[in-house]
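Priority: medium. Attachment 1 of 2:
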């Protein structure tokens, strides 16, 4: 006996419902990662995230801002994972209960770049002395000024040099309130000094007359960490999917992917999860 038109229509509707549910499920298989601009502007994420998606089927949507802003996004529950580089701020984030654990992932270092003739005489291996000379000479210095991990590191170095830019306002000090790439563009346009992470510097092509002047000081060490936003604080956090991303980053596969990212034969980040 042939099924009635009503029965056929019901079967078709049921099939469509299943397909729509499957499509919705596929669309929902993504996480949001709030991260520092250096992971994006260095090109690391373009190298790293496709490898994770191939391995897991999970899409990663990145919000690239300064570390302070990324942590605020995590506090609001607008991201599933935070991937940044300001260890004291990250430890505070965990202590306040916004994440249950911080995982070290990788490191690189900061460098001070400036005009090749180095009018301030900052060149050398002592970053505090270098910054002090830039300030004393009234040379242009471009600060991120955006509560990023780089900005926090820069302020710590100013303090070690016995200077407070906010209070003393050195003659050449300029805040851009911008990411690392735009700060370097501004530095190149005015022949100024800039503190930058090495990864973004290596990926940066608009160098103008800028060159690395100070590097190798242990105080320039730059550690990155990753944290799952606490689902007890924000139930909308995609705990299982986000945990897979964290686990992959610190796994041998994720660490190898980080270590394999190079520009002109130079690694930009060094994996150190283990």
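Attachment 2 of 2:
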């Amino acid at each position: 006996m042939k099924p009635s038109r009503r029965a056929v229509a019901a079967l078709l509707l049921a099939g469509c419902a299943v397909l729509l549910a499957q499509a919705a499920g596929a669309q929902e298989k993504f996480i949001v990662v709030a991260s520092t601009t250096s992971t994006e502007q260095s090109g690391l994420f373009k190298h790293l995230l496709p490898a994770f998606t191939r391995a897991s089927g999970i899409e990663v949507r990145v919000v690239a801002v300064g570390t302070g802003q990324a942590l605020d996004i995590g506090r609001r529950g607008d991201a599933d994972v935070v991937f940044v580089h300001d260890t004291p701020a990250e430890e505070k984030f965990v202590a306040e209960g916004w994440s249950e654990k911080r995982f070290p992932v990788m490191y690189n270092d900061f460098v001070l770049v400036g005009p090749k003739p180095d009018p301030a005489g900052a060149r050398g291996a002592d970053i505090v002395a270098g910054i002090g000379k830039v300030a004393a000479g009234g040379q242009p210095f471009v600060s991120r000024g955006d509560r990023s991990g780089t900005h926090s590191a820069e302020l710590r170095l100013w303090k070690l040099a016995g200077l407070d830019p906010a209070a003393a306002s050195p003659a050449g000090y300029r805040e851009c309130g911008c990411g690392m790439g735009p700060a370097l563009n501004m530095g190149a346009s005015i022949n100024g000094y800039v503190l930058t992470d090495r990864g973004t510097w290596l990926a940066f092509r608009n160098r103008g007359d800028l060159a690395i002047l100070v590097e190798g000081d242990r105080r320039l060490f730059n550690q990155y960490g990753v944290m799952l936003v606490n689902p007890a604080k924000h139930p909308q956090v995609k705990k299982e999917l986000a945990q897979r991303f964290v686990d992959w980053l610190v796994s041998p596969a994720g660490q190898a992917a980080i270590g394999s990212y190079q520009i002109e034969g130079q690694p930009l980040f060094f994996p150190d999860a283990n």
